[in-house]
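User: Hey, my collaborator sent me this sequence without any context and asked if I could get a structure. I don't really work with proteins. Can you help?
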Amino acid sequence: MTADNPLLQDFDLPPYSAIRPEHVEPAVDAILADSRVAIAQLLTEQNAAPSWNGLVLALDELGARLSRAWSPVSHLNAVCNSAELRAAYEACLPALSAYSTEMGQNRELFQAFEALAHSPHVADFDQAQLTILEHSLRDFRLSGIDLPHDKQKRYAEVQSKLSELGSKFSNQLLDATQAWTKHVTDEATL
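Assistant: No problem. I've predicted the 3D structure and written it out in structure-token form, which is a compact way to encode the shape of the chain:
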């Protein structure tokens, strides 16, 4: 499936016409699995002395890979919605929500970012790098990194429900929009 799944291929512009509903779940599952392995390896390599390229840039590249596959799916779901595509899209939401929460509450990852923020390398960072580092640490805190385990679990449940409700709202809005018509027969009104 990898060789013929356009979401797992490199592309400059999304190959919208080649993306099928059956490509979505396998692509998302593969990317999330690869990202988890890459993050575990990254943490092993960066544990002693995290660097900008080894930690921040590497994570950014993993995020870009996921975004490169998921963004076209989200767009297609919004503009070329079908029952099959909607089902594939919705099937991925729990996994994406869980992954996002998992990354935001990853204690080792947070500690690596903190270590980088307190390393001597930070003196050489430009303002953009400092801001990215500051925002990353903030995002860990907003994801509940400092919460007790039971509260982190509750946070994950709330995030999952929020994702589900957001999708349900979008679907209802899309359905209502597609179902609405206004038949105009008077040329002056038109």
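In plain terms: The mean pLDDT is 92. You can pass these tokens on to your collaborator as they are.
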